[in-house]
Amino acid sequence: SPAWAPPAAAEQIWNEFSKEESTDEATIQKSFIRHATKTLARSSYNMDQFAAYQATAHSVRDHLIDRWNATQHCHSVKDPKRVYYMSLEFLIGRTLDNALLNLNLKDHYKRAIGGIGFTIEDLVDEEVDAALGNGGLGRLAACFMDSLATLDYPAWGYGIRYEYGIFQQKLVDGYQTEYPDYWLTFGNPWEIQRLDVSYDVRFRGYVEKYVDVSGQTRYRWEGGEKVVAVANDYPIPGFQTKNCINIRLWSSKPKKEFDFASFNEGNYDKSVEEQKAAENITSVLYPNDNHMVGKVLRLKQQYFFVSATLQDIIRRFKKTSRPWSEFPQQVSIQLNDTHPTLSIVELQRILIDEEGLTWDEAWDIVTHTYSYTNHTVLPEALEKWAVPLISDLLPRHMMIIFELNLYFLQRVEKLFPGDRDRLRRMSVIEEGHPQYVRMAHLAAIGSHHVNGVAELHSELVKTTIFADFVEFFGKEKFVNVTNGVTPRRWLHQANPGLSTLISEKLGGTAWLKDLSQLDKIKAFADDVGFQNRFMDIKYKNKIRLAEYVKDVTGVTLSPDALFDVQCKRLHEYKRQHMNIFGVIHRYEKLKSMSKAELEKVVPRVVIFAGKAAPGYYTAKLIIKLITSVANVVNADPQTSEYLKLIFIPNYNVSVAEILIPASDLSQHISTAGTEASGTSNMKFVLNGGLILGTVDGANIEIGEEVGKDNIFFFGALTAEVEDIRHHQMYHNVAMDAKLQGVIKSIQSGRYGDSVIFEPLLGTLRSDYYLLSKDFTPYLEAMERVDAAFKNKSAWAKKCITAAASMGKFSSDRSIQDYAKRIWKITPVPTTEEFA
Ligand code: B1H
User: Fold this and answer.
1) Domain match, 443 and 527 both
2) At what positions is N6-(pyridoxal phosphate)lysine found (predicted)?
3) DSSP codes of every residue in 410-434
């Protein structure tokens, strides 16, 4: 576009009014009122709390946009290497409170909004979550964006603007029921629609072979149908920096708004059909965590997202007229799991078909650009797509996949001549009827680095799914980057009491940008005064949670009880059923106790929360069992002082922000070797809770940091799991006696007609997830927890020491790891001259 500058007469006014708005109380109030009256068309007699939230959000958005503009200006002038984080999920949650804190405007807004007659805390609660993700993988992407912005890295997030986020969960008769999450009903003040940033995306069609002017045989993808991708920008402000980066979310629009020819022929349905089909692409998030479902629409989403994103990246790259060979020095693309893997094939296609590079030149660029994060080794979660599906939707891509697989296998054959089973194992194509494309193989072959998300998981990646690939490429390509969480949202925002206490002791808030400084809090672990303040904050957080629980379930909780929480997606590998079986065991035991014995019991509140994939029958049955047991336990006057059981419906980021700071104990009890990392485990300990967990995922590294006295480990180790499964299968092993007791209790009908639970109890016959093996060790670990909780001061010391040991688990550390070892990018602070 031609360089434009304001005419001399307008320059002064331009400069003045494009400056970042000042943050004094009166200016904020004026901005609030301007947005209320002009943006929302409200008047003072027509304001409610939601409108006040909207007006506040719009005025905060102005600050975000100022910083966003400055950051973009700075980056286009300095033109550094950028990282592009491609993810089909961003589980952001709410924005208002987080933005206020990151911009350091919370106190200003508190006063300004208070002066107008609203309370900022009330307004914050009006916001609906942006829930464009399933669980840990999507939330990790959101934490990474916060860290990238905070550390001044030149980064973009790319994703899909789903109109429906993860479904809303309600309980009906104790069963999960799903409702659509149409989060955009009342608009979204945090996004900026960019109708000027749009790209065509092609589907289907055919491949044409031709000879170009230089006599080269080439291919081009033609015909088919096109849809349009439109950009929606979501500004992400860093903490205490001018830097504000962007998540660009694509929405699909029809290429032709309306088919007038069909309409005039009286074919009304057909005239809107195409429009609807196009809009459908970005309509809904697939609600499966750790499970692959091979639906065409999902594949369409993936390619739509990949195509639009690459066109945008390439357009930016081309602005500075560098040769293609410099692409990998300017661009690093991170694939968040295999979901965006088609991007590898798409870049190869663009380079050879459209840009005229040779295959080898193109492949060299591709493989120096991409890196891939693996998030799971569970077989049912590994993506594979039927070849006929890809051939139909993306015919040229299917050709390229076969071709790159051929070249790859030829290289394997050269290194391991005649090893046909190795070729079969390593092929991108799984043979059969139909054939399948193994996306993880494609991602590994097309990337310069592959990483797992915790030490153990990264070892499993190297020894299981990519063992052959390690032998072929060498082990340097396979690295670990342990996950982290942002301390801004997960401590400063969710637990202001604790954040303030830490800042007081450390003399400022610098620790929020360098979490390793938390270490210095260990010095206060024995200080009784500090212990009391620390536990008093926990107590107040428990009261806040109890109020929330009262509100949504009607059950009254005592904040003096031990709050024991397991909140995460429902999955057999995460073993929520082991937890509820444990609760049943506890309840039966309480029922058999004398009054004198009961008086020695540590009162306990067990809290579950989490969504089950709508098609995951067993997971839904676990929810039904939890709610059925809760109905009985909570109504039993004999035990009610000692045990309460809660299922909090519709677990999401906002609920997590209440739940996590209020826990004394949280459970992370996956069968060893199944949970790649887990990230809520980090959040719980950071907030002064302890972990009861298996030797799995990031639990292990948390244990190394906090010390063995400050974490409750139990259960079979990863190395033992295979042998135990084998043994159970072939040697008629009797089920654990206490677990048998629990099953009897369920089958007695005490929690309602037990027939409905038979399919769940049936899974214990083959017991793939080792509940029987781990049950007694689990109960013993629980006894250690109860004993430890009785000594208040010793418990406080554990919690303080553990929380102060969490420096490693900041997502800032994860991002610095990626930046230095994988992306090779450096920070580019947005300096004053751009503001
Ligand atoms: C994780 C997923 C996942 N691993 C497929 N894999 C999906 C797989 O829609 N799909 O098809 C969606 C999600 N999610 C989680 O990633 C791991 O289970 C956690 O252990 C880990 O902490 C998290 C972040 O790395």
Assistant:
1) no
2) 683
3) HHHHHHSTT-HHHHHHH-SEEPSSS
Q: Which of 679, 694, 718, 830 is catalytic?
A: 679
Same domain (yes/no): 442, 538: no
| Same domain, yes or no: 830 and 730 | no
Q: For 438-575, where are the alpha helices, taking DSSP H only? A: 439-446, 455-463, 467-473, 487, 496-506, 528-553
pTM of the predicted model over 0.95: yes
Sequence-distant (≥ 6) Cβ neighbours of residue 15 within 8 angstroms: none
Q: Which two tokens stand for residue 615?
A: 């098609």
- Whether 717 and 576 map to the same domain: the answer is yes
Distance CA 510, CA 487 (A): 12
Torsion angles phi and psi, residue 173, rounded to 5: 55, 35
For residue 286, which atom of ligand 1 is closest to its CA?
Answer: 9
Q: Is residue 683 flagged as an active site residue?
A: yes
520 within a domain of the structure (yes/no): yes
- 289 close to ligand 1 (CB < 6 Angstrom): yes
Are both 716 and 830 inside the same structural domain?
Answer: no
Say whether both 719 and 828 belong to one domain: no
Q: How far is CA 135 from CA 115, 164, 289, 620, 686, in A?
A: 39, 15, 7, 17, 19
Each residue's pLDDT tens digit, 21-51: 889 999 999 999 999 999 999 999 999 999 9
User: What confidence tens digit (pLDDT) does each residue in 147-156 have?
Assistant: 999 999 999 9
Q: Is the pLDDT of residue 1 over 70?
A: no
This complex has an ipTM of 0.99
Work out the number of other CB atoms within 10 angstroms of the CB of residue 301. 24
Amino acid at 298: R
Residue 171 included in any domain: yes
- In-domain check, residue 109: no
Cβ-proximal residues to 227 (8 Å cutoff; 6+ apart), any chain: 200, 201, 203, 252, 253, 254, 255, 278, 281, 304
Residues 621 and 753 in one domain: yes
298 is a catalytic site residue:
no
Higher-scoring residue by pLDDT: 283, 2: 283
The answer to whether the beta carbons of residues 499 and 770 sit under 8 Å apart is no
Q: Is residue 619 part of a domain?
A: yes
For the chain, the domain total comes to 2
- Its domain, for residue 241, covers 79-94+129-378+438-447+821-834
Q: Which atom of ligand 1 is nearest to the CA of 457?
A: 20
Give 296-350 as a DSSP string. Answer: HHHHHHHHHHHHHHHHHHHHHHHTTT--GGGHHHHEEEEEESSTTTHHHHHHHHI
Q: Tell me: do 715 and 828 sit in the same domain.
A: no
Q: What ranges make up the beta strands (E) of 94-154?
A: 130-132
Residue 263: CATH number of its domain:
3.40.50.2000
Give DSSP secondary structure letters for 233-246: EEEEEPTTSS-EEE
